[in-house]
Amino acid sequence: MSMRPLTLGKFLLLFSFAFVLSNCAKDPDPNPSPVYKTPSELDNTVVMTWNKLFLDAERFTKGYKPPVSARAIAYINMIGYESIVPGMSDKYNSIAKIQYGLNMPSAQAGKSYAWAIVMNNAYKYAFKFFFQTAPSGQQIAINRTFEDLMNKYQQDFDAETITRSLAMGQDVAEIIISWSQADAIGDGAYDKNYDNSYVPPSGPGKWQPTKPDYGQALLPYWGKVRTFASSESDLTLAPPVEFSTEPGSEFYRQAKQIEELTKATIANPDGEDFWISQFWSDDCATLTFSPAGRWIAETHQVISEQNLNLVDASVAFTKVSMALCDAGIGSWKNKFIYNTIRPVDYISQVFGDTEWRTIMCPDGTGNYFTPPFPAYPSGHATFSSAACGVLANIFGDNYAMNDKCHEGRTEFKGTPRHFTSFSQMAEENAYSRLPLGVHFVMDANGGLELGKRIATKINQIQFKK
């Protein structure tokens, strides 16, 4: 049986089909083309996208209180960083290996990797683990983020490279996730914010659950969570001002200051103090990201302004995140060592001013809240001081910026504020808790001091060789 000759049209059709197949299944190039870039040659899209997603994930996931959020993003960003270390091992250290003794995977000799895909898959596994209980909307966002980034990068690589890259990201994530699970108090803490067995100590000047809801103590044993760099001595603060109800005492004076400052702030809702107190609050569930997440948002803004490459952005996020984790641990450790009364109870019990209130998180029915844990030191001050100490080390303290974290919000005054240094940002954040009515001056000062110590230890970690 004779075969019919191909027409020109059929020939062109077959040729086009063969061309498409050849481009869909390219053989690995022994001399990689420019698409096989090192991590430092890539832009920051992957790390920026996932850190932005974190702000919504922690905002809407139940149980993501500030210390829990800080711990989660530290492990998540450590996973992201470690996923690209094998592609730059000549210049950067595996912190997981040199700092914590973990056995991390290496890149296969002579094999190509798509490092953006490696990191993307590492972040996906990290988010899937730390946000197991996230609402469906956030679960969908995690899947969509992974898929969108895969669609962006996979078209440049052959199937073998993609498979190898996905495996690397997964391996790194699983090793560090397993390590995180060995920290029993911290692991799964979003599901165990409160311990029914905890009974706060009673006595003069000791914290007790506060009005209006008299909520249980939040994370009373968080001070025992594993840190990333801070030692026991780094986290040991001097005691707060000695408790006293005497009118001439320092404690009495600081309480009177808060009573008067908060009243003045309430009386002037268009004033600077009202703006500051609202701008830095970040306390109200689902309304904003958490006080720890705030510094991921700040870091995101600075990295965007500086247009850092993938590696530098990853290092910055990882260092800030580790500082935030240690800040949450250190702050909560001291809170439950000293168990210092909150202003609302002192002002009510000692001054007899039972009508006095904070201006934190109004619920629309006349109720205003106080965080459900002891006052000293301020968590906000600790988080901000630790994060700013790291950011100053990377970008220089005298970094001027307009903080746009709450730009466009209408529920409160989120108009951007201008700062000329990271130190100024940390100090204003610490101060913001005073007109809000939830902290004493000693709480702010103690948190700033603690955060500085933590930043010093994080800055000593040798990311670069």
Q: How would you explain this protein's 3D organization?
A:
The protein has 465 residues and is an all-alpha fold. The chain is built from 15 helices and two strands. Strands 1-2 form a two-stranded antiparallel sheet. Helix 2 (45-60) packs antiparallel against helix 6. The N and C termini lie far apart (72 Å).
Quick recap of the structure?
The chain is mainly α.
List key phrases describing it.
465 residues, mainly alpha, two-stranded antiparallel ribbon, 2 strands, 1% strand
**Which range best describes the helical content: under 10%, 10-25%, 25-40%, 40-55%, 55-70% or over 70%?**
40-55%
Secondary-structure element order, as H and E? HHHHHHHHHHHHHEEHH
Task: Give the N-terminus to C-terminus distance in angstroms.
Answer: 72 Å
**Number of alpha- plus pi-helical segments:** 15
Q: What is the overall shape? A: elongated
Query: What is the makeup of the main sheet?
Result: 2 strands, antiparallel
| Count of strand segments | 2
Q: Tell me what portion of residues adopts beta-strand conformation.
A: under 5%
Within the largest sheet, what's the order of strands? 1-2
**Rg for CA atoms:** 26 Å
Low-confidence stretches: 1-26
Structural class: mainly alpha
Rounded average pLDDT:
92
Indicate the topology.
Elements lengths: L7 H17 L20 H16 L5 H19 L10 H4 L16 H16 L5 H18 L5 H23 L68 H18 L4 H8 L13 H14 L3 H29 L4 H7 L29 H17 L5 E3 L13 E3 L2 H15 L4 H19 L6
Antiparallel strand pairs: 1-2
